[in-house]
Design goal:
The chain contains 5 helices and 14 strands. By secondary structure, it is α+β, with helices and mostly antiparallel strands. The strands form 5 sheets. It has a 6-stranded mixed β-sheet with strand order 3-6-7-9-10-12, sandwiched between helices. A hairpin with a 2-residue loop joins strand 4 (50-58) and strand 5.
């Protein structure tokens, strides 16, 4: 960039990829806070269930020194929207060509199947190639059942996923597509 008096300055944006997953979760958390604030939906991040083994007290506060995962967690988020149960997980991949299925654990796949079976709305929010997609649970399961692969090709995600645009005030409006996959609006009304 050229400034007056022919002073040149270069700006380099430092990008930290260490917490890419957390960045996506922060965006989703902001979105959910917006939905709650505007009384649109009740969607919460589920805490991972832990069993506490050892606690100490420091500065009048309890500090967990030793704990274990009490049970396997299911998906990251759940709640209610328009009277329907909603559950989803947030996933990141650095792969440019495919979403590795080992990012979704077998117990999570089983849980996705159960949510579908019981009439809930379930999906994955996937960040890939710096684009955030919503992949509907039935499309995810259909891929697993149809193709015996270890990853979902990027072309499949582009074809079946919905691109979630980021809005500074509202986060990513994933409920726009929950309306569609949940049967609240028709494809033509979108």
């Amino acid at each position: 960039m050229n400034y007056p008096n022919k002073i040149k300055k270069e700006f380099h944006k430092n990008i930290n990829y260490a917490n890419r997953g957390m960045d996506l979760e922060n965006i989703i958390n902001e979105t959910n806070e917006y939905y709650l604030e505007k009384d649109i939906a009740l969607i919460y991040k589920k805490p991972t269930p832990i069993g506490v083994v050892k606690v100490s007290y420091e500065n009048n506060k309890q500090v967990i020194n030793k704990a274990y995962f009490a049970t396997q967690s299911t998906l990251d988020y759940n709640g209610l929207y328009k009277g329907k149960y909603v559950e989803f997980d947030a996933k990141n991949t650095e792969s440019k060509t495919a979403f590795p299925l080992n990012n979704v654990h077998p117990h999570q796949i089983k849980h996705i199947r159960n949510v579908i079976k019981h009439g809930g709305i379930v999906f994955l929010i996937i960040r890939m190639n710096d684009i955030i997609y919503l992949l509907n649970g039935p499309d995810f399961i259909s891929f697993i059942d149809t193709y015996k692969r270890k990853s979902i090709p990027y072309d499949y995600i582009k074809e079946y996923g919905y691109v979630l645009e980021y809005n500074y005030n509202k986060g990513i409006n994933y409920l726009k597509y929950v309306d569609l996959i949940g049967g609240f609006v028709n494809e033509e009304d979108k």
